[in-house]
Amino acid sequence: MAKRPFISARLRQTVGRRARYLCEYCRLQQELCPEPFEIEHIIPRALDGPTEADNLCLACPVCNNAKRHRISANDPMSGRRVRLYHPRLQEWDEHFRWSDDFGAIVGQTPVGRATVAALQMNHPRVVQIRLLWAALGLHPPR
Ligand SMILES: [Zn+2]
Q1: What's the 63 CA to ligand 1 centre distance in angstroms?
Q2: Interacting residues of 107 by C-beta distance below 8 A, sequence separation 6+
């Protein structure tokens, strides 16, 4: 396994603050998660993605583990291979929206649908937790 790259405390802080401490894929709030969020390489290091702010995003452990070294996945509607959502180049609201009860993330484009599926953003346990948070007024994030 490749050695983790050094990411300075300052760069971590820049990435976290820029993301408003939300996972840039599923919008999980860092303050609601017992595990620390990770600094994710959007283009993985295995594909020569640099450790620079433009290639980094804040990701919850679930999204980070599910994404791994991928940059593309199949759109479940068309079956076509498409690029995964790129938090630095694309707008979340263009590709995703919340379901009416805020439990699920709905992919609105091929990129959104492929990313929801690949990152398992609607795992039943996660949906259940979002519904609970929504009932408590803690979700969705503002
Ligand atoms: Zn996430």
Answers
A1: 4
A2: 95, 96, 113, 114, 115, 116, 117
Residue 36 CA, ligand 1 centroid: distance in Å: 12
Residue 6: CB atoms within 10 Å: 7
**Cβ neighbourhood burial of 8 (10 Å; 0-12, 13-18, 19+):** exposed
pLDDT tens for each residue of 74-105: 999 999 999 999 999 999 999 999 999 999 99
Q: How many angstroms does the Cα of residue 29 sit away from the middle of ligand 1? A: 9
| Ligand 1 centroid distance, CA of 37 (Å) | 9
Please state the pTM of the whole predicted model.
0.94
